[in-house]
Every structure is written in structure tokens, then in C-alpha cells.
Inverse folding.
């Protein structure tokens, strides 16, 4: 190639290069790749899973996946409830004491149960029930797909087994080994009677189908349904009795929201949540329920204060209840009044056979002062035997008390203006209805002394006291009653019915018998309809008030002390209270 | 010595027989019976009669006693009336709890009381002596019930140093082998449980020990003072022996005999004191059980537990008597 063409070629190349360079400079510069760090949190994985690098045209995404610690497994919620005593036998048919009831009611369920704080019943293991027109036949339709804690099915056979072993004298489990309490609750307290007895209330129990049970009664019974809700009719697993025999009471198996784990006598009973509970285990907030025994009331209160117990059962000293109400870390719940403390007079002993004398004594007793001073703020004056919370309460009955002048005038009319001397007995132990019997008896004695009645205060051992009071050995005495169910019959027939229907001998005592009252109570007990029964009980209350053989002094509420962290505990008048609704804040 | 031991063992039998007769008579002298104790306020009389018949309480007293002794000779302590549980089962569960509490209390009483008594004797009439004896007097005088509640309030409620009661925390797991929880924790190597057990034991054991501690301290002081004035002790001093050697090696041995007697007698005191301590601290022992049994007239339990207490007491005193021979070579039993 000649020099000229070489020069022209090189010039052209240079021109191209210059042009290219100029073009490159003129065009916008692409930004350097952007590094974007994207952190993805994956909860629950134990370590870093991946770190990926995604390169895109304009950016590099460095995706770093890290793992946080797995969400902490929620700690099991343990609730510690402290009582003044231990259970006796965890067999629904074979205990009568409240200490056993509070534990057993978490394990065993009844066909119907009390609703919240009331004595109304609602379905439980029975979804619904029907009664015949004459009130004698009851049909219970059982809940399906329910299992006992041991996996065996809850069905009509199991229900019949539970009732029959109490009712049928010839049932293989109706023997002495299984009856430390002689079936007293079934037979006497609920009045159901035994199969072999002529006058037994329950006549027949039969299976209609796997989910239906029929019970036939000898007569209509107003309290019958409410008695089915009582703890002694809790349904236990028949298979557990076949397995454990006479040790079944130490290995309770029910259908309830809690199942039995461990029992160290006089120390603790441990229950755990039943994860298969038909009512929904997720509705039960407590995983472990521990019942501890601390006998002394003060020590038990201190345990709640220290946080060793989340709550305590009844038996709080009145002073402790007052202090607890002021403690910012504690709360005091009140169980509605369901008892009555009364002053009794033996009309077989003169001059107590004179109505005016009895009325004078009633007017002389200063109930208001007694309740204000000696119940620690947990008492209300009683006008009648029924507490105000119970249907059948008669609001027309006026308070007869607190008027010494009236009492003196009545004694004068009775020809006893100079007064008289008489023995007056009080119990040696604290009772829910008389928290300090000695002090209360002393106060009553002082009131009577003001109107000229001199009393010799006496007491004796509690077991013998009850026997002697029942046998009419005392002239005047203190006693009381805590209801079993929410039925007025349980309060009134216990004390004023001469011959309970179907029973052997009656409870007549102490020279007092009112046939009209007796007939009224029998009639009321035989009606099923509350609307029909209620006016009869109000009438009965009027008759009792007119006769004045027993003077109702007070009803007491029972203070229950809990930590402020506790919610959902519903005190029930009958004492039947469930932990399935209880929550414990951390 | 062996003959003496056998003779003493044989003599336990009439002692226990006497205990069964006395207890049987006494409990039947108490008003009321298991049937009346079980009943509600207004239970019909027929219920009580039914219960009495099933329990055999309407039989003549001698017949009831013979039935009871017949079972006892077969090793059957009977069943609790309130729970229908075999009494021997309940004893196996509860006795270790009381023994653990009682032995710990006795250990505290000896480990603190004996040195306190020695120091008081050696430093006679000093401030230490006065303070020691005042404290021992306080220990003997203060009611266990009151002291327990005060200690619980201060150390558990206010200071949160220890729990208010029971043997072991509700959330602590322990495999129970012997029912002596401390031993079980050691056997299973469960030191978490061991720590928890000690925390639960320290307050009730200390409270229970106060009476015995006071008595042991006083007796040790008094006995030591007596021995320290003896000629051979003066000779030991004169020979130039160290004070510690004179006191601990020469004097203490001879001063121990009355102290051991007191320790043996205190076993009875600990058993009765345990009832109160167990009640306050929620300790599930045998003391509280027997108290409840008396309230509920649970005759078989009262009889069975009293018999066991008597046996313990007799055996402890036998051990005390035999220990004299070990401590003092001059004492020999034929």
C-alpha cells in the first residue's frame, strides 16, 4: 500500500476512534451495580438457612436469611389452690365432705351442672332431658362422643352403672368396701332411697339406647333434677373400678376438664388438663391444677400472700379477709350466702312451750350487733331459714329482733316478768354460719340477761353436740345448716318435716310439730314446677315465723381469698366451683 | 450386753400391750364415735345406727378389742374409717415425712445446743453465757405455733427467703423411692430437688428444734460445769494440756450422759411438737394425721398410730440406754 493510502487509512481509524470516544462520553454512564441487602426473617428455624446473592442488571440483591430463636414454648400454667383439709375418697358416690368435692368436681362431671354463680341447672353430660306429664319419668339424652380419661366410652351403660351402684343393694359395687359413707348422700341427703326399700323415690333406672337413660320415680319430685347436679352423682368410669377395685377411689377416672395425676395424702393432689375434653381443652387455661393442704387458717393466708398459693378455699379468718381486701396484690371473692345459723328452743322444756316466751327471746336477741361485730363483715341478718339468694324466699317476713322493751312486755304477758334461768348450749367449733360460736353465744346470753333470762352457757365435743341436739337433750342451743343444692326443700324439710316422704323416721325434734307446715312441705316437694312450688315455700316460711321454735340469726357469705392475678373463678352458693373457667396472669 | 438387749426387746411386748389397752379404753371414753363424727347437722338417727353396725361399734367393748388384737397379731393395723385405706399404707407414706422433719430438728438442736452449752460452761457468767441461756430460755418458752407463724411471716412473706410450707415445690420432680425425700434426692442424684427440699425443710425444722435446743443447751452447760470442776480436769490443766483438748476430749465425754438422756426423752416431745409444726407448715406427716383422726374419731388410726409412737419411743430409749455403755466404759449391762 502506498504511503498516501496508509496515511489516509490511519486518519480514518483515528477519526473513528475519536468519534467512538466522543459517543461514549456523550452517553450517560450506567451507575455501578447497587448492592441491596434484604434480610428475610424466618421464625422458628434453628440456624441460618441460606444467603443467596441475586445479581440483577442494576442491582445486586444479597438476600440473607437468618433465623430468630423459635418462639418460646409457653410455660405450662400451674395453679395452686390451698385448702384446710385433704380429700377423703375420690369416689363421687362415697364422700360427703367439701374438701373432697372441690377436687372431685374437676375430675367427674354430672349429667346437669349448676350455672355460674346460680343454682340454676344447665346441660353437662346430658345434652337435654324430658319429664313425663306426671313428673315421674325422667329421660336424659346423653352427650355423644365423650370419653373417660382412660379412653373408655361415656354412654348409657356407664351412667346406669354409676346410679345403680348407689341405688341397687345387689349391685356388685354396692358393698361395704366401696361405701365408707354408707351411701348416705344418695339415700338420706338426696332422699333417693335403695332399690329394696318400699318407699324409695327412685324405682327404676334403664337404658333406652346407648345415649339415652330413663329414670322412673315413685312420685313427682321437685328437687330431683337439681339433685342430679349434686357432686355425689358425678359419673366415674366403670372400667376404672373393674381395674382398680377397692383402690379405685385413689385412681379417679372421670370425663372432666382435668384428669388425675398424683395424690400425696395431706400434702397435694395434682391434676392436669384433659386434652380430649368434650368442652374444648383450648378453653381451659390451666395446665396443672394442684390442691395443697394447709390446715391452719393463718398459715394458709400467709401462703397466698407469699404467692405459694394462688387462692385459698373457705376458712379464712374474718380479720384476714378484711386485710386481704386492702392488699393491692390480693382480691376477696364472696360465695353467696347458702347457710343459716339459728337459735333453737326445745318446746318440751318449760317455759319454752309458751309462744310468748319464744317471741320474747326472739325480740331480745340483738342480731344486728352480733352480725356487725362477730361476722367480720361477712354476715347478713336472717329473717327466715332460706337465704335471700334462693327462690322461695319470702320478702314479706319482717325482722323480729333487737327490741328489749318488746321482749320484756311479752315476758310480762307470759307471767314471767321476773325472768327465769335455763341452760344454753353452743358448739365448740367454728362453723360457716357461726364463725365464733362462743362469742355469739355470749352476746346472745347478754341480750337475754337484759330482759331477765339468765342462761348457763355450756358446750361439749362437736360430734356429741350434734347427736344430743338432734335427740332433744338441750333446752336452748345454737346450730345451723349449709345447703346441699339450690332447693328450698333442702333447707326447710331438713328441719321442719316430721316424716320425709319415703324415709324411715323423721327429723321431728324438741316438742315441735306443725301439721299444716308438714303437709305443705310434702306437697311442695312433690311438684316439679318451680312456679307452683314457690308460693308454698313462702307460705311455709310464714308458718315457721309464726311458731318461732327456731330463730334464724344470720346467713354468712364465705370469703375466698385469691391473688389479683386470678380471674374467672365463679363462687357458687352450693360450693360447686369449676377451675375450667379460671385464668392466671403471669 | 446381748442378754440385756434381748431382755429389753422382750419387755417391749408387755409395754405395747398396755398401750393398746389404755388407748382403746380412752378413745371409747371420749364422747361421740365415728358414726356421729361423720354425720351432717341433722342426719337421721338411723344413719348413725347403720354406720355403727357396719363398723362393728355396737359390739361389746371387749369383743371389739379382741377383734382388733386378732388383726394386730396378724400384722393388720386395719383400715381407716374415714378413707377405708389400709392404715399401714398411710403410715408408710407419712412416717418418713415426720421422721425427716424430726431427725433434722434433732440434728439442729444437737449441733447448735451442745456447742452452745459447752461455750456457756467454759465462759461461765460471761456475756456469751448469759445470751446463750436467755436464748435457750426463749426457745423453751415460745409456743411453736406462734413462733412458726412469725417465722413464716418474716422469712417467707416479707423476705421471700424460703417457702411457706410443704415438703417440696409443686413444680419440682422427684422420684420417690423411700419417701425420705432427702435420701431419694441423693439416691437419684437430683440436686435441683435436693436444694428445693432443703429450702422447704429449714424453717419448720428450725422452729421444731427450738424447745429441744434450749433444753439440750441448758443440760449440756449444767453437766459440763459439773465435770469441769472435777479433780481430773484440774489435773489435765495442770499437766499443760490445751483447753480444747481438756474440754472436748476429757470433759465432754463424761458430761454427755445426761445430755443423751434428754435427747432420748425429747423424741417424745418432737413427735408431739411435730403435730403443731406439721399443721402450721402444711407438712404431710403422721402428727397431723393423728390429730385429724381424733377429731373424726377414726379409732383404728388412733390406735395404730399411738402404737407406732409408743414403739418408737421405747426403741429410742433402748438405744439411749445402750449408748451409755459405749460412752462410759464403766457402765456394763448383764
Amino acid at each position: 500500500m502506498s504511503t498516501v493510502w496508509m496515511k489516509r487509512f490511519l486518519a480514518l481509524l483515528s477519526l473513528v476512534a475519536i468519534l467512538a470516544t466522543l459517543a461514549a462520553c456523550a452517553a450517560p454512564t450506567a451507575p455501578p451495580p447497587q448492592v441491596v441487602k434484604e434480610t428475610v426473617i424466618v421464625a422458628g428455624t434453628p440456624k441460618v438457612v441460606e444467603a443467596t446473592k441475586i445479581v440483577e442488571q442494576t442491582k445486586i440483591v444479597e438476600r440473607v436469611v437468618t433465623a430468630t430463636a423459635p418462639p418460646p414454648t409457653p410455660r405450662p400454667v400451674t395453679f395452686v389452690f390451698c385448702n384446710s383439709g385433704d380429700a377423703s375418697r375420690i369416689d363421687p358416690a362415697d364422700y360427703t365432705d367439701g374438701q373432697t368435692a372441690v377436687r372431685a368436681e374437676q375430675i367427674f362431671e354430672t349429667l346437669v351442672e349448676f350455672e355460674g354463680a346460680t343454682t340454676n341447672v344447665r346441660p353437662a353430660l346430658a345434652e337435654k332431658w324430658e319429664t313425663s306429664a306426671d313428673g315421674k319419668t325422667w329421660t336424659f339424652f346423653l352427650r355423644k362422643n365423650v370419653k373417660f380419661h382412660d379412653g373408655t366410652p361415656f354412654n348409657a351403660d356407664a351412667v346406669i352403672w354409676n346410679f345403680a351402684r348407689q341405688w341397687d343393694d345387689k349391685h356388685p359395687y354396692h358393698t361395704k368396701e366401696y361405701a365408707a359413707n354408707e351411701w348416705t348422700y344418695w339415700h338420706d341427703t338426696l332422699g333417693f332411697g335403695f332399690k329394696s326399700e318400699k318407699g324409695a323415690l327412685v324405682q327404676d333406672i334403664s337404658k333406652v339406647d346407648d345415649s339415652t337413660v330413663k329414670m322412673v320415680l315413685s312420685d313427682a319430685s321437685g328437687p330431683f333434677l337439681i339433685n342430679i347436679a349434686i357432686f355425689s352423682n358425678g359419673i366415674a368410669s366403670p372400667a376404672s373400678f373393674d381395674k382398680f377395685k377397692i383402690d379405685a377411689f385413689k385412681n379417679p377416672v372421670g370425663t372432666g376438664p382435668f384428669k388425675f395425676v398424683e395424690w400425696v395424702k395431706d400434702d397435694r393432689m395434682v391434676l392436669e388438663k384433659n386434652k380430649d375434653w368434650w368442652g374444648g381443652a383450648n378453653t381451659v387455661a390451666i395446665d396443672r391444677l394442684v390442691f395443697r393442704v394447709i390446715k391452719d387458717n393463718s398459715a394458709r393466708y400467709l401462703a397466698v400472700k407469699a404467692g405459694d398459693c394462688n387462692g385459698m378455699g373457705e376458712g379464712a379468718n374474718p380479720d384476714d379477709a378484711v386485710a386481704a381486701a386492702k392488699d393491692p396484690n390480693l382480691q376477696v371473692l364472696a360465695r353467696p350466702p347458702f347457710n343459716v345459723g339459728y337459735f333453737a328452743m326445745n318446746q318440751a322444756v318449760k317455759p319454752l312451750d309458751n309462744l310468748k316466751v319464744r317471741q320474747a327471746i326472739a325480740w331480745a336477741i340483738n342480731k344486728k350487733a352480733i352480725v356487725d361485730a362477730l361476722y367480720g363483715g361477712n354476715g347478713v341478718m336472717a329473717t327466715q331459714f332460706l337465704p335471700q339468694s334462693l327462690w322461695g324466699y319470702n320478702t314479706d317476713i319482717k325482722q323480729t329482733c333487737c327490741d328489749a322493751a318488746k321482749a320484756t312486755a311479752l315476758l310480762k304477758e307470759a307471767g314471767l316478768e321476773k325472768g327465769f334461768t335455763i341452760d344454753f348450749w353452743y358448739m365448740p367449733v367454728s362453723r360457716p354460719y357461726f364463725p365464733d360460736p362462743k362469742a355469739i353465744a355470749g352476746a346472745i346470753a347478754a341480750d337475754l340477761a337484759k330482759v331477765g333470762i339468765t342462761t348457763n352457757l355450756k358446750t361439749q365435743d362437736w360430734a356429741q353436740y350434734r347427736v344430743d341436739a338432734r335427740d332433744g337433750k338441750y333446752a336452748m342451743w345454737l346450730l345451723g345448716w349449709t345447703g346441699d343444692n339450690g332447693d328450698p326443700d333442702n333447707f326447710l324439710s331438713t328441719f321442719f318435716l316430721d316424716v320425709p316422704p319415703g324415709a324411715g323416721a323423721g327429723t321431728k325434734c324438741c316438742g315441735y310439730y306443725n301439721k299444716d307446715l308438714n303437709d305443705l312441705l310434702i306437697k311442695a316437694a312433690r311438684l316439679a314446677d318451680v312456679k307452683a312450688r314457690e308460693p308454698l315455700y313462702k307460705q311455709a316460711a310464714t308458718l315457721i315465723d309464726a311458731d318461732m321454735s327456731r330463730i334464724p340469726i344470720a346467713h354468712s357469705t364465705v370469703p375466698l381469698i385469691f391473688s389479683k392475678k386470678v380471674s374467672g373463678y365463679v363462687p357458687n352458693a352450693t360450693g360447686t366451683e369449676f377451675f375450667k373457667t379460671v385464668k392466671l396472669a403471669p | 450386753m446381748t442378754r440385756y438387749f434381748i431382755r429389753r426387746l422382750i419387755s417391749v411386748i408387755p409395754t405395747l400391750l398396755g398401750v393398746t389397752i389404755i388407748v382403746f379404753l380412752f378413745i371409747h371414753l371420749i364422747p361421740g364415735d365415728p358414726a356421729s363424727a361423720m354425720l351432717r347437722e341433722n342426719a337421721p338417727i338411723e344413719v348413725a345406727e347403720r354406720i355403727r353396725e357396719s363398723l362393728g361399734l355396737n359390739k361389746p367393748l371387749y369383743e371389739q378389742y379382741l377383734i382388733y388384737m386378732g388383726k394386730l397379731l396378724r400384722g393388720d393395723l386395719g383400715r381407716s374409717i374415714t378413707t377405708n385405706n389400709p392404715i399401714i399404707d398411710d403410715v408408710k407414706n407419712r412416717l418418713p415425712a415426720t421422721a425427716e422433719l424430726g431427725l433434722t430438728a434433732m440434728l439442729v438442736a444437737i449441733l447448735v445446743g451442745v456447742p452452745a452449752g459447752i461455750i456457756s460452761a467454759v465462759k461461765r457468767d460471761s456475756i456469751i453465757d448469759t445470751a446463750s441461756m436467755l436464748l435457750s430460755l426463749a426457745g423453751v418458752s415460745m409456743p411453736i405455733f406462734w413462733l412458726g407463724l412469725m417465722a413464716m411471716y418474716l422469712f417467707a412473706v416479707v423476705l421471700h427467703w424460703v417457702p411457706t410450707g410443704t415438703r417440696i415445690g409443686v413444680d419440682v420432680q422427684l422420684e420417690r423411692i423411700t419417701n425420705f425425700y432427702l435420701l431419694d434426692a441423693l439416691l437419684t442424684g437430683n440436686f435441683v430437688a435436693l436444694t428445693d427440699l432443703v429450702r422447704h425443710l429449714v424453717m419448720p425444722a428450725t422452729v421444731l428444734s427450738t424447745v429441744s435446743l434450749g433444753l439440750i443447751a441448758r443440760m449440756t452447760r449444767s453437766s459440763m460445769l459439773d465435770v469441769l470442776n472435777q479433780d481430773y480436769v484440774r489435773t489435765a490443766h495442770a499437766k499443760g494440756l490445751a483447753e480444747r483438748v481438756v474440754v472436748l476430749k476429757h470433759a465432754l465425754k463424761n458430761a454427755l450422759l445426761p445430755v443423751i438422756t434428754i435427747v432420748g426423752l425429747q423424741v417424745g416431745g418432737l413427735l408431739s411438737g411435730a403435730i403443731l409444726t406439721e399443721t402450721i407448715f402444711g407438712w404431710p406427716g403422721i402428727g397431723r394425721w393423728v390429730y385429724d383422726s381424733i377429731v373424726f374419731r377414726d379409732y383404728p388410726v388412733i390406735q395404730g398410730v399411738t402404737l407406732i409412737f409408743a414403739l418408737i419411743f421405747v426403741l429410742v430409749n433402748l438405744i439411749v440406754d445402750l449408748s451409755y455403755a459405749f460412752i462410759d466404759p464403766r457402765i456394763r449391762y448383764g
About this structure: Chain B touches chain A through 53 residues (CB under 8 Å). Chain B has two domains: 1-82+296-334, 100-286. The mean pLDDT of chain B is 85.
